[in-house]
Amino acid sequence: MASLTDDNEAGGNLDKRNIWLIGAGHTRIEDMFDKSVWREFDKRMFQVFGKSIHCVDDLYFNVIRENRIGERITFKDEEVLNYLQDLHSMMGELYVITDYCYEHDHGPFMVCSKELERFVNTFKTVFREPFYSTDIIIVSFEQKLIWVFFHEGMCWVSKG
Q1: For residue 55, what pLDDT band results from cuts at 50, 70 and 90?
Q2: What φ, ψ does residue 21 adopt, rounded to 5°?
Q3: What is the pTM of this model?
């Protein structure tokens, strides 16, 4: 899979025109708002997990590990990522869904697990809003795992 930016190895910043999305590497800004991206993702979710993402609560199934952190007003983006990574290792292609995806009718972000920390740390600069605001969903079709950080101060990983 290609990296998040054309010049990642040179230490370049994440550029929203170059975020890779589900299926193929859509690099044009127009592709980022394509409804077919959500349809493709939903279809794959159903094939692998037998579920669609209509409500985060629906993703609480076959839970293999969870952490009840407690409800707080704010969490730092990197703190949320650390809680999720502590549940289970993340490998390969990950499909990341943030509030940005819903609020801007944007499909899931496809991010290589090795680039996930950089993606989270630069999210606010690129998209002008924090990575975490209410719920975060990260899906690995390869591992058949779904990580969820729920706004009520808990996180879990479900196995398909």
Answers
A1: confident
A2: -110, 175
A3: 0.79
